[in-house]
Specification:
This protein is an alpha/beta fold. The protein is built from ten helices and seven strands. Strands 5-4-1-6-7 form a five-stranded parallel sheet, with helices on both faces. α7 links the parallel β4 and β5. Keywords: Hydrolase. It comes from Streptomyces alboflavus.
């Protein structure tokens, strides 16, 4: 089987979000609010424990009143915002406007950093003639993040859950991505960090490769094996 297309997850695979502390500090600065450093540290730790930052520490204990919303959060922009601002509201912040301000910050390019080897791997796939797609459970348009970091030219198709009202691991979102690439699932490799969500591509017939969801500094070359897999399979 020659691999003619590669699909990538976004958060934890190609990009990593800033830390919860950086997220809170940046939002406070933009809102022109000043808090004692010990209070910033306390609030950041509480937000982190709650899993309030999309792409950050996973949310473990979802409040009962948010359980249904949480299960569908990536199906629309409205659900995504409501779910994450709802989780953030479990932490009392000094200004109610901060909940929406935090949500807005996490959608900005400066809140995300590509893994160090992401540009090299995406360029390498382009040189091999392999088409590339991004498949993400998300509630907002991540294309500006790719553009700001110079990676958009290497992506042929984006399949974003909120645009299709379908979340991974539902095979339909992977089918949308493969159709957009013009590549059969059997000739496609899915690369992700979530062994439940991203494994859904296997039901469609895609090969699946996992990377570890680690901070950027702790995963300098986690994507490089993808080039070896593609070359070993015989890229077109």
């Amino acid at each position: 089987m020659a691999i003619k297309g590669v699909l990538f997850d976004f958060s934890g695979t190609l990009f990593r979000s800033e830390s919860t502390a950086s997220w809170l500090r940046g939002t406070l600065a933009a809102s022109r609010l000043t808090l004692p450093e010990h209070e910033v540290a306390r609030l950041a730790a509480a937000l982190d424990r709650a899993g309030a930052l999309p792409g950050g520490t996973p949310t473990v204990d979802v409040p009962e009143h948010l359980v249904d919303l949480w299960s569908r959060r990536d199906e629309s922009a409205e659900l995504h915002r409501a779910a994450y601002t709802g989780i953030a509201r479990t932490v009392e912040l000094p200004d109610p406007a901060l909940y929406d301000a935090l949500y807005e910050r996490h959608r900005t390019p400066e809140a995300w950093r590509p893994y160090d080897d992401a540009p090299e791997v995406l360029r390498g796939l382009r040189e091999l003639g392999v088409r590339v797609g991004v498949v993400s459970n998300i509630g907002w348009d991540l294309r500006p993040v790719f553009r700001a970091h110079g990676l958009d030219p290497y992506v042929d198709v984006y399949a974003l859950s909120y645009e299709h009202a379908v979340q991974k691991p539902d095979a339909r979102i992977f089918a949308q991505a493969c159709a957009g690439l013009g590549v059969a699932p059997q000739d496609t490799l899915m690369v992700g960090d979530d062994r439940r969500a991203d494994a859904g591509a296997a039901a469609l017939g895609c090969a699946v490769h996992f990377v570890e969801h680690l901070p950027v500094a702790r995963r300098p070359d986690g994507l490089r094996p993808v080039l070896g897999l593609v070359e070993g399979a015989g890229a077109r």
